[in-house]
């Protein structure tokens, strides 16, 4: 195992039981064994997303899945609302514009969640909106966006609700079918506890219909191809990251056995502990409202503290944390809790954090 504890928004430390898989010989992806593994993994992914529909497994980082979530379901010139509460909302906007979509960008200050009345106003002023794109857990900030409320707006319409839950899934409540989500994407390096390289795409029946009309170019990211191969032979259309899929198979079994609700509760308790400890040493929470805080990571800041120096010192002592972006580049620390992290590890981290803080303040 790594000597460093990754308190980052992903990737996470990889548990020993999954690391072993990468040291074993590989299997071929056109064999009965691989088909069985992919089929079982699909059944468990359906349980994780809470959907009755199959979930495509693509060899790609999350950004590839974001691109797939756009090119498969929209056409050039389609009007979409992008709810932009951070760097990954901004990424959705950029990908949409590159493919010629007409973007209504609802931008918010770092640390603020979106306002439902802004979305309702944009919909009232634009009766031709084809989709709403939103980041569930915005890791650049630590915001958790209310997906369920958006589903209530889109459920009885032709509009698609497209959700990036790459870092949100498993650590936070998510209900694909129950919340009327149409497209949702996730990634292997987050709460699935395996390396980067796989992304998962769940789609609704409504999204399948939209897929038939989409005229945007796609080849590798064509969800139709993934569906066709899975339906016909429980395979992927192209050579996948086989070792990652073998590790995913084990990770999913563990997640289901443990229970998603149990994991959410554990992450919530870790988040509350970090919030309390950070405030005890004079740090502020970037996300002010409790309902807008994700269990994926905690963003804390303190004016006048050069956080980069503290982050570098902690790195030297075996703890990897990440800084902020934009106007919080100097003062923000993002403490991620997606991995198998204990309260004891958080307590140890804060002992060193406080020590480095006192050094900088000359105390």
Report on the structure:
It is a single chain. This protein has about 375 residues and is an alpha/beta fold. The protein folds into 2 domains: about 5-10 and about 260-360, Aspartate Aminotransferase, domain 1, CATH 3.90.1150.10; about 15-255, Type I PLP-dependent aspartate aminotransferase-like (Major domain) (Aspartate Aminotransferase, domain 2, 3-Layer(aba) Sandwich). It is built from 12 helices and 15 strands. The chain has helices at about 15-20, 30-50, 60-70, 85-100, 115-125, 145-155, 205-215, 225-235, 240-260, 260-280, 305-315, 345-360, and strands at about 5, 55-60, 80-85, 100-105, 130-135, 135-140, 145, 160-165, 185, 200-205, 285, 295-300, 320, 320-325, 330-335. It has a 7-stranded mixed beta sheet, with helices on both faces. Strands 11-12-15-14 form a 4-stranded antiparallel beta sheet, covered by helices on one side. Helix 3 packs across helix 4 and helix 10 runs parallel beside helix 12. The model has no long low-confidence stretch (mean pLDDT about 95). One of its GO terms (biological process) is glycine biosynthetic process, by transamination of glyoxylate. Keywords: Aminotransferase, Pyridoxal phosphate, Transferase. It comes from Pseudoleptotrichia goodfellowii F0264.
